[in-house]
User: Fold these one by one.
Assistant:
Number 1:
Amino acid sequence: MTSTTSRAPLHAPARRRRPFNPRRAGAWALLVLAIAVSVLPFLWVLRTALSTNSALAANSASLLPADFTFGAFMRVFGLQSPADAIAEGGSGATIDFWLYLKNSIIFSSITTAGAVFFSAMAAYALARLRWRGRNAVFSLFLGTMLVPPIFTALPNFLLIKNLDLLNTMLGMVLPYVFMTPFAIFFLRQFFLNMSREVEEAAMLDGAKHLRIFFQIVLPNAAAPIATLALLTFIGQWNEYFWPLLVGSQDDVRVLQVGLGVFKSQAPQGSPDWSGLMAATLVSALPVLILFAAFGKKIVNSIGFSGIK
Amino acid sequence: MTTLAKNARSAPPQTGAPKPRGGYRRIGDLKIALFFIAPAMIGFIFFYVVPTIRGVYLSFTEYNILGDPTWVGMDNYTAIAKDPLFWNSLAVTGQYVLINIVLQTALALGLALLMHQVAKSTLIRGALLLPYLMSNVIAALLWFWMLDYQIGVVNQFIEWAGLPRVAFFGSEEWAIPTQAVINTWRHMGYTALLIFAGLQAIPGNIYEVAKLDGASAFQTFRKITIPLLRPVLVLVLVVTVIGSFQVFDTVAVTTQGGPVNATRVIQYYIYQRAFTESDFGYGSAIAVILFLILALVAFIQMKFLKGNESDLD
């Protein structure tokens, strides 16, 4: 450290104009390494998914797919006959990722839509309306962020079971669909900073709260609401524990749970690696697409959620 | 835009907020507020408050799901105190948390500094964030493949380097560090972005003054960056600790507590007791203990953060 600083010229501008700066180059090299570690595994997954199992064993480190095939993807979507599947190293058990994909989309969409909308309503009441007990209620909501999910998961499982909703989509979405503490916190923050004047003008014109909420508050907060919906959707997409408890049966099984089942189906000793990696990729794809489309929104939200 | 124009003429009489009609408004607002908050309140009561109370109650009962819970007082807790598997799960989880704290914070801090120095582009930040957006299950399976003993690419490299292959998931001494490193991989970029946001918030003129005073890069880092970053670092630490205490997904998908008891972390043990062995009372009691541990962490955080509030101002 000291040697670099003593070698560095005294005048900062001169250093900036230099064509090659070893310190900056070193920093870049480390950064590129970190990016490689973050991104390359996904390319490796793709390469594996396009290989056949028998060829994988022989070419465990070649960069290109070993014996290129789409067989693994067909196997994952149940399009391959059991005989072909076994020939390519699959378990031969039927597995239908179309169904899991559909279930994941339904589960994530319903919970996201419900949680964001109802949380927006609550945040409106907590930020824009004046009533006694408002701050106490907000503190209570915020306090739930401290309760670890596993703690409420056991009694919630019993509740869903008592309601006879195990292995139904309704039972899976119920705990999430009314609100998430983070969504309320996130939106309240934005609503607090909105100018009160527009709202009061509308009120003078005789608009009711419901109209103000739908026609003024929601449109004005479209950007933060979109960010929140995006973050919530990704979070729900990746949810594993609760769907594992409540939605273990095939017809409501989501992708994350399906992945676990697929992995455990693999015969001991020679797992269906290419099939597993194809399934992994399928599970990751929707989030990858969202990230490609709205990456900037997601990245820029990180600073905010950190200040909670 | 039109609403804004309308607002310009009608706003002035309204801006002096607390008006005599305050008392009347309060009642009116309470009604409408109840309407707006009702759905969230239903979720809050039925899926947060009631289960929290029920969870505490269940921890004092014996309950195997089929019958009714029977009150057994402190029996579960005294049994837990003597349960070697519980203490093992605590030790294993502690090891996991510790590796995550050290490795994740150090790597993330380094990465954040690098980003702050040379590249602030969204694309680079996005690339580093990618693993965090993937589910735990995906992260676990991806590494389960890459670290495979037989044909995993990492072991292939290890062999080329002339070293013996490592059973990352299959050996007792490697299993928990492997799980911890997977978690670090997934969270490293996210944590770096949190710290990076903190770095951005430090006013640039402080650095200029330090430079004028002839401070070395290391001095500036130790005397300015770290103290001003402390609130963010404490937050990052707490998020890391609370998050890693609840490790479950990666373990459930890969090692399932094994080999032997090497990865039977707290949450996985709760899951096994409650769902595999249908012992809800016992599982709930361990969950209460986990809850208390996390509450303690949060409490320490608040004390820390209060102590540091003055740092940035």
Number 2:
Amino acid sequence: MAMTQQEILAGLSEIIDEIAGVPADEVTPEKTFVDDLDIDSLSMVEIAVAAQDKFGVEIPDDQLKDLKTVQDVVDYVGRASVSA
Amino acid sequence: MPNDPTRVVVTGLGATTPVGGDAPSTWQAMLAGRSGVSALTDDWAQRLPCQIAARAAVEPTTVVDRVQARKLDRCEMFALAAAREAWADAGSPEVDPLRLGVVVASGIGGIGSVLAAYDTLKEKGWSRLSPFTVPMLMPNGSAGWISLELGARAGVHTPVSACASGAEAIGYGIDMIRSGRADIVLAGGTEAAIMELNIAAFAAMRALSLRNDEPERASRPFDKGRDGFVLGEGAGMVVLESESHAASRNARVYAVAAGAGYSADAHHIAQPDPDGAGAVLAIRRALENARVTAAQVTHVNAHATSTPAGDVVEAQAIAAALGEVAASVVVSATKSMTGHLLGGAGAVESVAAIMALHDRTAPPTINVDDLEDDLGVEIAVKPTDLNPRGPEPMAVINNSFGFGGHNVAVVFTAA
């Protein structure tokens, strides 16, 4: 069953809180990981691995580098889980 | 010389040890003669001949926040906790970042992270390794994190000399200030190695006490019944500052970090030279470097780990190096309480030596029921008053020796 955007955002927020300590209410779709949420590229790798496990999707490194905002990840996971 | 820019003083102290979560509680526990050694209840310990160790009194995860802790080895958490305490204790000084240095050592570095990462690699594959695995396992990780936190940019260094590392870091820090590279240096050492592999490896060397039925009695330097050291964990830090910089901000001064001396045994990779020549040389060089005479020295915090071979050689080396005053020099082995913190030892014991000088009291060596013969120095078995012998400032020494043949002595004098 496909996840809604809200479900993906909620799951992603949990991961970001766990790994980077950013409270869920600050993780809004337009935020960029590096500039707005102050998440470095190493923590971004951790978040991506956790997202792969949680949502059952693959996020290859060459895709990860293009995921700049929270919405980018939500969209990517939404597309990848439909095609999976 | 007052306000000499090349004279170095100690303006802050920090420690997290098996007997206390900070420097004041550690010092009070030492004066009270409290042991930090206990039985290891971990499943893995039941497979080993040694089942005792001195765990930190305060878990570092209660000091470092959860998100940062994910990126840190346990030894880095200890280092950050002690560094924050030392920095705050010094009054969080304002200093040009380009004139602030960090010298923080470790004997082994992030060995716990190595072991955990290898398990992850074998069980789950490379992609499940934390992206922070490398900065967690590198021995200079603690120094790097402290530099980041303080914004220190004069230079960040990590001398590695096994159990002499912490003392060597303080010596290096003194030299950084004397040579004009920095006004303030945060220096010390850290270790977190109470794990199956390390205990097993030290047991394979026959280096550990096997007094499993009496953990608190196991570490007993200078006692005839000693049978090896007890592994401890934790960190010690000092804030070193040029006397002129400290004076300019009216900083509280604990002591003068007067100098350090070094030598190498070139005798055996892990056993002390039985004639103690290297230790004698390090102590003499330290006095020379500090411009201190033997007559000024009233106290030595000995390396004394409670191994059969090392303690007597060291006591005799102290006696030989200090000559005619040796019989009235009060020697303490605080490892009798903290266990052996490896790369953290020289730093924690420098903190203890500085507090002994400051309070004019040598801490006790516990568990000395049957003192070794012919040591040539007085072993403090209870808190012992220290008094200067003449008008010159009283001096104390911290000895630290390491596998590899490293000998380091650091001299502190009364402020």
Number 3:
Amino acid sequence: MAHAQGQQHPISLYLKIWGLLFVLSTLSYLVDYFHFHGYLRWSLIITFMLLKAGLIVSIFMHMAWERLTMVYAILLPPLCLLVLVGLMATEADYVFLSRVISFGQ
Amino acid sequence: MASHPLAPGESSSSNPPDSPPAPGWQGIASDWASDKEVFKQVPWGKAMMWIFLLSDTFIFTCFLTGYMSVRMTITTAWPNPSEVFALTIAGQEIPLILIAIMTFVLISSSGTMAMAVNFAYRRERAKTAALMLATAALGVTFVGMQAFEWTKLIAEGVRPWGNPMGAAQFGASFFMITGFHGLHVSIGALYLGIVALKVMRGDYERSGNYQNVEIAGLYWHFVDLVWVFIFAFFYLW
């Protein structure tokens, strides 16, 4: 019944996650502060971003304790968006060339 | 639900609605196959909020993908966000400092919200309402800082169709993405205020169900989640 009544976890868990999110945000800010460049910068940004997103979704939004059917129904559809991102990225040089040719900038 | 008549061939023990799921894919298959509601044990309000958030994910990703396409295809230099969003504090220019503070404010609001949900299920009404109002206050602070940032950029001549720092599309992306996110935060603060009021009034105490606090929390954490992506891709990239 405790579960049907809702999620019940110790407050300390939330405080720990809160602290972790603070640390991760500070780290991602430091990436900019120390002027990292190129692939090092991008991979660090994405790593910290995914870690933060994962903590928020799994702990704060309680995804870690939801029924698997729910988890997959919500987390799988966004994968379509990766296809969109991939398509737009592969089209980018074509669009760039069109800009150069048509607008002569 | 519990008292519906049994269909022929259906035994009451084969798949009662409150049975724990079988592990892994077997459980998923049986949840989807039972020809009844799929999201068992998930209150409909929560399932609907998740589906709304899923659709919102698509909207924000479309914005961010549009921004990515623009940034990959421009022929002039993109303004350096580290400099555009720098603030001069005590005579020293600190890069991106306002955005960093906004990030911490929003993360803190997520922390207070998570604790509010926790106290709601423990039926500690005063603490729940106080934490929710604190969350809303942090949200309003965030929007206030965003308004300050907008004012500063508009004063510097950034417009949706051009700006003095570089690629013309910078303004359009900036106003569209942060504006839409700020709108979400504003509506969220209002939403939290209303739910906090209902907590204080004892509505959920009477119905014995504090699920609505968790549902409001889902929305609020999502707003924070979107900011994580905006922070990474728009401000840091």
